[in-house]
Amino acid sequence: MKVTDHFKNANGKTLFTFEILPPLKGENMKTLFSHIDPLMEFKPPFIDVTYHREEYVYKQRENGLLEKITTRKRPGTVGICAAIQNNYKVDTVPHLICGGFNKEETENALIDLHFLGIDNVLVLRGDCVKSEQRFVPEPGGHHYASELIEQVVEMNNGCYLDDEQVSNSCTDFCIGVAGYPEKHFEAPNLKSDLRWLKKKVELGAEYIVTQMFFDNQKYFDFVNACRAEGIDVPIIPGLKPMTTKTQLTLLPSLFHIEIPCDLADAIEACPDNKAAAQVGVEWAIQQSKELMEFGVPCLHYYSMGKSGSVRKVAEALF
Ligand SMILES: Cc1cc2nc3c(=O)[nH]c(=O)nc-3n(C[C@H](O)[C@H](O)[C@H](O)COP(=O)(O)OP(=O)(O)OC[C@H]3O[C@@H](n4cnc5c(N)ncnc54)[C@H](O)[C@@H]3O)c2cc1C
């Protein structure tokens, strides 16, 4: 079922959903299910599964020279979505990125998802390869999420890359996209970022999931700014309970977000990560309560591979 239909069927009740990462290469589905199991009693209607592009690593050869190797540390998004749907009978939302894909490969991935009965995709550009300064599209690939949306919409209309071929079996993907209450880090200003966000919606995106934020006012301001621009689709807040002291500097550097002073001071004062995680849970519960009162259709939690804190938050709310 489509994410947007889940929102409609909820009749104004706030839903609980979460995002997981594919396990590191070499780990198995049992480990992944052991992270998902504790969250299933809160009845998520869908689970997001991230996509991780290739990375370059350098290995020293016997002759002392370095060899550049391409590796994908967290493969398996499509298979994981199918396994989750099969095991838990819930919908999944695979993330689909431009980086590392040409249009042909994207089309093949979408055909696989369609055959597997997956009805949703979160369409993203993806970040640049870690060793590169800026995003470089694959030859024959897409520069921006908006171009990838156009390809999905074409397939929803039964048009594949081969002009001649018009299928009478259209795909019917519900398309979600990313939004940034604190602005995407490359955008010159929020206004410009919102203009491109609006374009994604005009092209066919039916809902927006936000980057994590720790100050609800940033989300409220973002929603107001979106509405003023004429962006009228649901805007799902993405939340992350902070779990370690190092996340105080790690999360801002990775995701280009601010940690409010009160939260930063409380985490800094913690003697260890156990205490920090407790502060993180309490903060996320307060954020969630206020967002529920605001009437958000769904609270979407970034588990980042660990479900313990998300479960504690869900226990207090759902
Ligand atoms: C909810 C969520 C889930 C995510 N999941 C993943 C994941 O699974 N895998 C992963 O690799 N990354 C993921 N990311 C990170 C995301 O890929 C990066 O933030 C990336 O840098 C931007 O992706 P985007 O889809 O927002 O890009 P876009 O919408 O393409 O925007 C990228 C930048 O270009 C600008 N822009 C957009 N269109 C145009 C245009 N036509 N011309 C000029 N400028 C333009 C925008 O303002 C923005 O600054 C996720 C992010 C979020 C918020």
The distinct bound ligands, ions and cofactors come out as: flavin-adenine dinucleotide
The biggest sheet, with number of strands, parallel, antiparallel or mixed sense and barrel status, is: 8 strands, parallel, barrel
**Element order: H for helix, E for strand:** HEHEEEHEHEHEHEHEHHHEH
What Rg, in angstroms, do the CA atoms define? 20 Å
The percent of residues in helical segments reads 40-55%
The backbone outline, from C-alpha atoms, is globular
Query: Gap between N and C termini, in Å?
Result: 22 Å
Strand content: 15-25%
Q: How many helical elements?
A: 11
Structural class: alpha/beta
- Please state the average pLDDT score: 95
Low-confidence runs of at least 5 consecutive residues: none
- Number of extended strands: 10
Strand order of the largest sheet: 1-2-5-6-7-8-9-10
Pathway: One-carbon metabolism; tetrahydrofolate interconversion; Amino-acid biosynthesis; L-methionine biosynthesis via de novo pathway
Family: Belongs to the methylenetetrahydrofolate reductase family.
Pfam family, one: MTHFR
EC number: 1.5.1.54
